[in-house]
Design brief:
The complex is a heterodimer of chains A (358) and B (388).
Chain A: H1 2-12, H2 14-36, H3 43-65, H4 68-102, E1 104-106, E2 114-116, H5 121-162, H6 167-175, H7 182-192, H8 198-205, H9 209-214, H10 227-251, H11 255-263, H12 268-297, H13 300-305, H14 313-322, H15 327-352
Antiparallel strand pairs in A: 1-2
Chain B: H1 14-28, E1 52-56, H2 72-80, E2 83-87, H3 93-104, E3 114-115, H4 119-127, E4 131-132, E5 162-174, H5 175-178, E6 197-200, H6 203-213, H7 224-239, E7 243-247, H8 251-257, E8 262-266, H9 267-276, E9 280-283, E10 289-296, E11 298-299, H10 305-315, H11 318-328, H12 337-344, H13 346-349, H14 358-363, E12 364-366, H15 372-386
Parallel strand pairs in B: 1-2, 1-3, 6-7, 6-8, 10-12
Antiparallel strand pairs in B: 4-11, 5-8, 5-9, 5-10
Classes of the chains: A mainly alpha (358), B alpha/beta (388).
Chain lengths: 358, 388
C-alpha cells in the first residue's frame, strides 16, 4: 500500500502519466534489446527482464488506478509497447548482432565463434568482390519497379474509377496469386519462358526473335536464363505490391474534383495530370518502396530464371552465409545492402515524398 | 550429391518439390543459430543406447512401402524391433553442415544417430573430430563392402563411415537437341551448344569432370594451382554466356525439354528421365567420370549405437541391399547385390550404370580430399564462377 501511496502523484497527474509511460517504454525496449543482443547474460539478463517486467507493471498500475488525466497521457506509450518490444527483440537485436558480426573475423573457416576485431576489411571485400552483383540488384530492381508502375497504375486506375460493382472482385483477382507460394509461381515461369514454350514460339512465329536479340532482350533466341526473365519475374511477383497502395490512394479521390476541373475547361488529360496524378502520388511512393526494397534483396528470381551472369546480391549473401560459412563478409554485405537502400530511399523521399503516406 | 532419383515416377516429382522448396526454406534461415533448436545438448553414452534410431538421409533414397511392397524401413523394424525414424532432412551437404556446425562445433550433440554426408563431407566431419567410430564389431555384414570403397582417403581407417549408395557424374544430353551422340568432356564446351549447356553447383562433380577433360586426375590434386586450368576454362565459358545455368538436380526437366542440350548430370537421374524420354542419354566420358558416394556416419555423441549397428547390418545384407538398389538405381557398395538383383529385375542387373564393367570402373575417379585451406580456395573460386 505504501508503494501505491508513493506513486500517487504519478497515478493522478498528466505529467506523471507521461513520465511513467515514457520511462517504461525506454526501460522495456532497452532491456529486451540488451537480452536479445546478448549484451548481458546470466543474472544481469534476469535483472534486465525484471526491469522490463517492472516497466510493464508500472504502466498497468497507472492504467488501472490512475486518474483520467494520467490515463489519457499514458495511452500512446501503452499502445507503442507491443511494437517497441517486437522491434527491439526481432529487429534491433539482430541488426546489432549483424553489425558486430560484420566487423568480426573467424579463427578458422569452420569456427563457430566469430571474434570481434574491428575487421573493416570485410566491407572492402563486400564492395570489391561483389560490385557487379550489387549493381545488378539495383538495376534489376529499378527496372522492375518502373515496369510494375507502368503496368500497375492503369490497373489500379481502372479498378478504382471504373470498377463499379466489380471493384472487390477485381481487387481479389489482384491478390489471388498470393494463394500460391512465391517459389511455385517463379518456377511456373520457367515453363512459360522455356525455349519450346508458348512465349518463345509466338515470338518466333512473329519473326520478332532477331529484333529482340538485337536490342538485348533475348540471348541466342531464348528468354529463359536471361536478364529479361529475371526482371520479368521480379515485375510479376511484386506487381500486387504496386497496385494495392495506388488503388488505395486513387480510391480516396473524390471524382467530383475531376468534374470540377472539367467544368473549369480542363481537358480530361489535363484534369488527370493536375488533379488525379498529384493526389495519387502517395500511393505511387508507397508502391515503389514496397516493390523496390524487397526486389533489390531478392534471390529467388535470379536463381531460377537467370544465368551465372545475372546473379543479384541476394544470391551472393545466401551463398556466403549458407555455403561458404563466411558470416563476417556476408554480414558486411547485408549491411552495405541495407545502407544503400536506406540512402536511396532517403534521397527518393526528398524528391518525391509526399506528406501523407497513404 | 543433390539428387536422388526414383524410377518411373512421371511428372513433377515429390523429389523436385522437396529439393526446391528445401533449398528455399534453408536459404530463408540466414543464421544457423536459428536452427539450434534442432539439436539436444545431453551427452550420449559411448555404447548401447535405446531401442530407437534416427537416420537422416537424402530425399527419396530408399524403397518406400508402396504398391504392395514393404519398404526397407518397415522390414527392418519388423525384423529387429528397433523403432527407426527415417527422415529425409539431408538435402545439401553445405547447407546441412551450416545447420549442424553451431552444435557439433561447440561440443553439443545433434539428434540423429546416423547422417548421410557425401564422402568428402564425411572426411571434413572426421577431420573436425565430429564423428564417432562406427560399432563395426557388431556389423558382421560390413564384410560385404565392395573392395573399391575400403579405406578411402576421406576415412583412411575405414572405421568412421560406411557407404550408403554410390554414383557417377558424367555427361547427360538430349540427342534431339545435340543431333549426335556425345562421348567427350570437350563436347560440353562445343561452341555449337553455346547457351544450352548446364553444369552442377556441386563443385567436385563439375570441376572434377572438367579436370578429367584436361587430362588431370582429380584424385591426385592437392593445391589450387593444379586445378586452376579447369577454373579458367569454366570462367571463360561462363563469361562468354556458353554456360546457361548452374543447377542442382533440377536440370532433368530442362534436359528433357531440350532447353539444355548437354549438361553435367548424375547417372541415377538420367535413368529415370530415360524411362519417359528416350532422347535423354548419359555417358561416362572417354576421359573419365567422377565417382562419389554418400556415407552413413555417426555424429559425435550419437546415443543409439546398438540400434545403429543393427540397421547397418541389415542394409549390408545383399538381399536387402538389392531391394534398395532396385528402387534408387545407383551403384550399390554391397557385394552380391547384382546376383540378388537379377532375381528381382534381370534387366536392371545388366545395366552398366548400376554395375559398371571393369573398364568403366577404371575411368571413374573420386575427387581428392582437400585440406581445409585449399578447399576454401576451391569453393571461393567456384562460387565466383557460379556467379554468387
Amino acid at each position: 500500500m505504501a508503494t501505491i501511496q508513493m506513486l500517487r502523484p504519478a497515478l493522478r497527474s498528466k505529467e506523471g502519466g507521461e513520465r511513467v509511460g515514457l520511462a517504461a517504454l525506454i526501460v522495456v525496449a532497452v532491456a529486451v534489446l540488451a537480452v536479445g543482443a546478448k549484451w548481458v547474460t546470466g543474472f544481469a539478463a534476469v535483472a534486465m527482464m525484471l526491469a522490463a517486467l517492472l516497466g510493464i507493471v508500472s504502466v498497468v498500475l497507472v492504467a488501472l488506478l490512475g486518474g483520467p488525466e494520467a490515463k489519457r497521457a499514458l495511452a500512446p506509450y501503452g499502445l507503442l509497447k507491443p511494437g517497441s518490444i517486437w522491434m527491439a527483440l526481432f529487429y534491433l537485436a539482430p541488426v546489432w548482432t549483424l553489425l558486430k558480426s560484420s566487423l568480426s573475423s573467424k579463427a578458422s573457416r569452420f569456427a563457430v565463434q566469430t571474434d570481434f576485431t574491428w575487421e573493416f576489411s570485410n566491407y572492402a571485400t563486400a564492395f570489391s568482390d561483389f560490385g557487379p552483383q550489387f549493381a545488378r540488384a539495383f538495376l534489376y530492381a529499378g527496372a522492375a519497379t518502373v515496369l510494375t508502375l507502368l503496368i500497375g497504375f492503369p490497373i489500379a486506375y481502372v479498378i478504382a474509377f471504373r470498377g463499379g460493382a466489380y471493384r472487390n472482385v477485381l481487387l481479389g483477382l489482384v491478390v489471388i496469386p498470393f494463394f500460391t507460394s512465391y517459389l511455385i509461381r517463379t518456377i511456373a515461369w520457367t515453363s512459360i519462358l522455356a525455349d519450346s514454350g508458348p512465349v518463345v514460339s509466338v515470338l518466333d512465329t512473329l519473326r520478332l526473335t532477331s529484333l529482340l536479340e538485337s536490342v538485348g532482350l533475348m540471348e541466342d533466341g531464348r528468354l529463359m536464363n536471361t536478364a529479361t526473365a529475371v526482371i520479368g519475374g521480379l515485375t510479376y511477383n511484386f506487381l500486387p505490391f504496386m497496385i494495392l497502395p495506388i488503388y488505395v490512394a486513387l480510391e480516396k479521390i473524390d471524382v467530383r474534383l475531376v468534374d470540377a476541373a472539367q467544368d473549369l475547361y480542363s481537358s480530361p488529360t489535363r484534369a488527370f495530370r493536375m488533379v488525379v496524378l498529384p493526389l495519387s502520388l502517395s500511393g505511387v511512393f508507397a508502391g515503389t518502396l514496397l516493390t523496390f526494397i524487397p526486389a533489390a534483396g531478392d534471390f529467388v528470381n535470379a536463381q531460377f530464371l537467370g544465368n551465372p551472369n545475372t546473379t543479384m546480391i541476394g544470391n551472393s549473401i545466401q551463398d556466403q552465409f549458407l555455403r561458404q560459412n563466411n558470416y563476417p563478409v556476408a554480414s558486411a554485405m547485408s549491411f552495405v545492402l541495407m545502407a544503400i537502400i536506406t540512402l536511396l530511399v532517403v534521397i527518393y523521399s526528398r524528391f518525391f515524398g509526399t506528406e501523407d503516406l497513404v | 550429391m543433390k539428387s536422388r532419383q526414383v524410377r518411373r515416377r512421371p511428372g513433377m516429382s515429390r523429389r523436385e518439390f522437396l529439393v526446391r522448396s528445401g533449398a528455399l526454406g534453408a536459404a530463408g534461415l540466414s543464421l544457423p543459430a536459428l536452427l539450434a533448436a534442432c539439436g539436444g545438448s545431453d551427452d550420449g553414452g559411448s555404447s548401447g543406447g535405446g531401442n530407437q534410431l534416427l537416420f537422416e538421409n537424402w530425399p527419396l533414397y530408399i524403397d518406400p512401402t508402396e504398391d504392395g511392397l514393404t519398404g526397407s524401413v518397415d522390414r527392418f523394424m519388423a525384423a529387429s524391433g528397433v523403432e527407426l525414424t527415417y527422415s529425409e532432412a539431408y538435402n545439401d551437404n553445405l547447407e546441412y553442415f551450416a545447420k549442424i556446425q553451431p552444435l557439433l562445433g561447440t561440443g553439443k550433440t545433434i539428434e540423429p544417430d546416423i547422417i548421410a554426408p557425401t564422402q568428402w563431407m564425411a572426411g571434413r566431419l572426421l577431420n573436425l573430430g565430429w564423428l564417432d567410430e562406427l560399432p563395426l564389431d557388431k556389423v558382421p555384414n560390413a564384410a560385404n563392402l565392395e573392395d573399391a570403397f575400403k579405406n578411402p582417403p576421406s576415412d583412411p581407417t575405414g572405421k568412421y563411415s560406411l557407404p550408403w549408395q554410390s554414383g557417377t557424374a558424367g555427361i547427360a544430353y538430349n540427342i534431339e537437341a545435340t543431333g549426335r551422340e556425345l562421348k567427350s568432356v570437350a563436347d560440353l564446351f562445343d561452341p555449337e551448344f553455346a547457351g544450352r549447356v548446364a553444369m552442377l553447383t556441386e563443385m567436385r562433380d563439375t570441376v572434377g569432370l572438367v579436370l578429367l577433360g584436361e587430362g588431370i586426375d582429380p584424385s591426385k590434386i592437392s593445391t589450387f594451382d593444379e586445378a586452376a586450368v579447369a577454373f579458367e576454362k569454366l570462367a571463360k565459358a561462363k563469361a562468354d554466356g556458353h554456360i546457361r545455368a548452374f543447377t542442382g538436380n533440377d536440370y532433368t526437366d530442362d534436359l528433357g525439354l531440350g532447353n539444355f542440350a548437354v549438361c553435367v548430370g548424375w547417372s541415377g537421374d538420367v535413368l529415370q528421365v530415360q524411362a519417359d524420354n528416350p532422347n535423354v542419354r548419359f555417358v561416362v566420358p572417354e576421359e573419365g567420370g567422377t565417382l562419389w558416394w554418400d556415407t552413413m556416419v555417426m555424429p559425435k555423441g550419437a546415443k543409439n549405437r546398438d540400434a545403429a549397428a543393427k540397421w547397418m547390418n541389415f542394409v549390408y545384407d545383399p538381399v536387402e541391399a538389392a531391394k534398395i538398389a532396385a528402387y534408387v538405381q545407383y551403384i550399390s557398395p554391397v557385394k552380391g547385390v547384382r546376383e540378388e538383383l537379377a532375381k528381382i529385375d534381370p534387366e536392371l542387373a545388366d545395366n552398366p550404370l548400376l554395375f559398371p564393367d571393369d573398364a568403366t570402373k577404371a575411368r571413374l575417379i573420386p575427387f581428392a580430399a582437400l585440406s581445409e585451406d585449399v578447399e576454401a580456395e576451391f569453393e571461393a573460386a567456384f562460387s565466383d564462377i557460379v556467379g554468387a
